[in-house]
Amino acid sequence: MQKQPKVAVIGGGIAGLTAALNLVQRGAQIALLERESILGGNALTVCCKALEGKCQLCGGCLLADRLAAIKEARDIAVFTNTTVTRVKRVGGGFVLDLAVAWAPDTTLAVDAVILATGFDHVDAHTKGPYGYGILPNVTTGEEVEKRLRQNGRSAYESLGLRKVAFIQCVGSRDEHVGRGYCSQVCCRYAVRLARLFKSWYPEAEVTIFKMDIQTSGRDFDPTWQAAHKEGIRFVAGLPAVIRRSTEAPGRAAFIYDDILAGKLAQEDFDLIILSVGMQPRRDADRVADLFGLNRDPYGFFATNDDETSTLIPGVFVAGSCQAPRSIAESIAHAQKAAEACYVYLQERGS
Amino acid sequence: MSQRINVDKRVMVLGGAPEAGLVTQELLKLGYFVHWITPDEALPNVPEDHPRLTCYENCALIRLDGHVGGFIGRFRRNGTELSLHASALVVATGNERYYPIERYGLALSSNVLTVPQVRKQLEAPRSTGAALPHRNRRALLLLDLNGETAKEISAEAMRLAIDLRAQWHCEVYVFYQNLKVDTYNLERLTRTMREKGIVFCRYSDPQITFSDERISVSYIEGTVSGELLILPEAVRPRTDTQELAKVLRVRVGEDGFFQDINIHEYRPGLSARKGIFFAGRCHMDGDWADIQTDALQAAANVDALLGPGFLEPEPIIAHVDSTKCVRCYTCVRTCPHAAVEMADYDEVIAARVVDLACRGCGACVANCPVRAIELIGQAMPAWVQSP
């Protein structure tokens, strides 16, 4: 390449950071655009789930060194509090109009764009019968992670938990809420959190209500096996409705169909954690319109068969704005997107 | 302390797995010279007559010298030895599939078949008649028997179920414990299967009985009997993994695949040794899309390392004082990155840290019994240096 190519990376989460770092190492100049006031995205809410110092491989800590590396990298310009308002195709590249709080009327001319806008957690309110927001005992995996990240072990200590339930597939694999896909991360975080709860509060009984535990991945299968050994109960069957318990005041209760035992059962719980999945960002349609991208039936950005390039030459997609991904998978996918982008730039430049 | 070393764009790709082909093609696109080497008979999908590609079949790595930027691999090929140079190395040897007879406890027969066996019959030309007995019959596909079925294999089995239904008009029952749907399109695939009339049955402890030509599977909701029982294969590390790991001086995880599972230390895509990368099934479990992603990210990582054309040591690295070294080899054994070796310092032989390979972790410093090693390179701020 004769001159340094310029790439706009939209989204400063784990995927955006990874793609930016990979491209800058290979000689590109990067403008990293982030809507929020800080970099990090959804990975910032992930807590460390180490069990007595032993890593559970959730990947939450992989963010830190990338943030540090971004600071040191010379050719990355970071724009926080920034959104793209207009996109024009000029020559082979793009001109982006930016809404930057501290610099009005900024425009940016780039050769290629990597979209890494990430995901939103599914809003647990959409599963109305689960009583999220109404029953104090019903919370979400996202909230638990945030609380543990802030307060660590003490977060749930005072509650004197005796029975904890995780409910899987909240807003995943559920066409009723328009999410007919597996979010991939919720089994993993639920099993890891369940083991963490079990090790911190050994007297508590921890149950995971599931459809199918997604045991794939070399790092996850051993974790799941260990969870069985540690006495975490897995029940195949999801509740239809969660309500206040009539027998035990202050608890929440639900009836579920234990498929493998072939019977209905009712139980009370102190804490019910809804394992919420991933959905496309609520403003993903706006971003798609800006760049002229298609979206798939569930609203994620549609790509070509390689899962990173799009119908618009020069626009690439990285991380969980294309499909649900864990942190480690987002990193891999972002590197793949950076690779596709780099090859594109090289073929165009020569 | 900034000594740059120029490197050439020459990479060795080890292994004959399909993902090795992807890495090779991507590296060729990026302008690299690639030696593609496999211990197996043949390589898959070799790009034709590429000027920057050389292929070596039946070629086993017996020794690896040097470090990032200058690896020298010695290979044995048909009784002769050859040596090849490269700046980096990508390992993509893949995994091995087998029929886990001890786990399943079921012997294969004419009506107990594995997924690939049925696939082969399905794809055989009609004239051979190999598969005629199974047409229009009832097939029982038994996943997750006495353990979990890997994602890729489970997805293949589900695709087979659809084809059995469409081409042989079989009634297909899928028995499972945890249906793997954690790839974006698999949920849709299972829905398509249901629409096509494939029946899903969840079991926890099935009873399998054989009588005459029929096979029955009993589970909580009842018994289903059919004429054909299909079982998925399982995966395991290739048998040469341990040996290769020893030569490459990298570790093997508890499950026998390359590298301990340590995402923090090795990051996705990197290995413990600088300049060595792993791609695909030799170090991961996933479906084909995951494996493709992994292969391309390996290429991206290689290019991020070698693309600039030079290598520099990290800001903080270890350094051995050769006059203090007692040649106990503790550091050589301890170094997780295989960056310490014995070297000839003109007058003495002592340990030496290879600057480019060192990650500055300090493991050798902590373990050296005579304190001959220290971490150097920390720049002292001006205000610390008293006049």
The residue fraction in helices of chain A comes out at 25-40%
- The strand order across the widest sheet of chain B is 4-3-2-8-19
CATH architecture of the largest domain in chain A: 3-Layer(bba) Sandwich
- Unreliable segments of chain A (pLDDT under 50, ≥5 consecutive)? none
Number of helices of chain B: 10
Give me the CATH architecture of the largest domain in chain B, please. 3-Layer(bba) Sandwich
Looking at the chains present, what oligomeric state does this protein adopt? heterodimer
Q: By CATH's scheme, which homologous superfamily of the largest domain in chain A applies?
A: FAD/NAD(P)-binding domain
Biggest sheet of chain B, open or closed, and with what strands and sense? 5 strands, parallel
**Beta-strand percentage range of chain B:** 25-35%
Describe, in short, the structure shown.
The complex is a heterodimer of chains A (about 350) and B (about 375). With about 350 residues, chain A is of the alpha/beta class.
List key phrases describing it.
heterodimer, A: 350 residues, alpha/beta, FAD/NAD(P)-binding domain, 2 domains, five-stranded parallel sheet, 28% strand, B: 387 residues, Alpha-Beta Plaits
